[in-house]
Design goal:
heterodimer; A: 166 residues; mainly alpha; B: 92 residues; five-stranded antiparallel beta sheet; globular; myristate (chain A); palmitate (chain A); membrane (chain A); molecular adaptor activity (chain A); guanyl-nucleotide exchange factor activity (chain A)
């Protein structure tokens, strides 16, 4: 037989006396000729009962396996068509455009800043403020401060003016 | 009197490139104006000078502020209680 299992199991399968310890499933590779599935002989014998059980058990396992299996190839077979892809792209782009224009309105209405410099790059690329200008404003401010301090109010007229009575 | 201030503003306006001069007190009251400067801007430039001075509170003197634009530079400087503004066009 070429069996590598224990001797007890070999003895039991050779005896073929079904009891509560006999196996319902027999490895078909090990006993291809001893228990043919589609044999017509011995339909009333106890061995036919084990064959029926064997068949139902095989069917049950087959159904269980068929229910448990997730057929990935069947899911993958649904590929996106070209027109479907274009339809989706159009839908997404239109929704994005709606969202962008919707958020732009309040921000543009809130932010109202005057355009101070029309050509900023010319201003930025211009020469920095010269030291002569800074000296000029420093001296002028100092002189202006002195001149303002020299301003005094001269009293020429009466501070209280009498309006003519009507 | 204010003759000294008037003369100073005229002298400043005669500098090359200067097109406007303004002098204001610490409360933004315009004390004198010449050229392109307008008396309405005196309060703004004084407030700007006071805000700029807060950047360096430890400094003994107020900073010189320069507003650069394509319509010329505006120089602002406060000395004690007086603020002077010079509008200067670039000289080439």
């Amino acid at each position: 037989m070429g069996c590598c299992f224990g001797r007890d199991e070999d003895k039991r399968t050779q005896v073929e006396s079904p009891d509560e310890r006999s196996r319902l499933l027999v490895d078909p590779g090990r006993h291809p000729s001893s228990r043919p599935i589609n044999s017509e002989y011995g339909s009333q014998s106890p061995s036919s009962l084990t064959k029926g059980d064997e068949q139902s058990e095989l069917n049950r396992i087959l159904h269980k396996a068929a229910n448990d299996v997730i057929d990935v190839s069947a899911i993958d077979s649904h590929t996106m068509e070209q027109h479907e892809y274009l339809d989706r792209a159009r839908t997404y782009s239109s929704r994005v455009a709606v969202v962008v224009t919707g958020t732009k309105k309040p921000s543009s209405s809130l932010l109202v800043l005057p355009q101070g410099v029309s050509v900023p790059y010319t201003v930025l690329a211009d020469e920095p403020v010269s030291l002569a200008d800074i000296n000029m404003i420093n001296v002028a401010a100092e002189n202006a401060s002195k001149a303002v301090k020299g301003v005094k109010v001269k009293h020429r007229e009466d501070l209280v003016v009498q309006f003519p009575q009507t | 009197m204010e003759n000294n201030l008037e003369r100073l503003l005229d002298e400043t306006l005669n500098n090359p490139g200067v097109v406007g001069v303004l002098c204001a007190d610490k409360q933004g009251l315009c004390l004198g104006v010449k050229g392109t400067a307008t008396p309405e801007s005196s309060g703004i430039v004084v407030a700007l000078s006071q805000q700029a001075a807060l950047l360096k509170p430890a400094a003994s003197t107020a900073p010189v502020i320069c507003l650069e634009s394509d319509k010329g530079n505006v120089l602002v400087k406060s000395h004690e209680d007086t603020t002077l503004v010079i509008h200067k066009m670039p000289v080439y």
